[in-house]
Amino acid sequence: VMVMKFSFGGAHQWTVLRGGSGNEYAYSLKVDSSDAIIVGGTSDSTDLDSQSNAGGNDVMVMKFSSAGAHQWTVLRGGSE
Fold this sequence. Notes:
Low-confidence stretches: none
Strand order of the largest sheet: 3-4-5-6
Number of strands: 6
Mean pLDDT: 93
Distance between the termini: 22 Å
């Protein structure tokens, strides 16, 4: 997953790359009231941020601070 932040004027501020050995796909992005970034998507990696993949494509949620620091990752899914 690649997350980039730009100023209102279009100047690049930072880029963060996160991923495991498989594929991660981001489908949703939200900025919360503290300007933290929440990314939702799917992952089939077995080693994404020390999370266990239950099988196939699991739901993935990641949170980043407003400065781009990774805060946490959650994977949830079933065996298929």
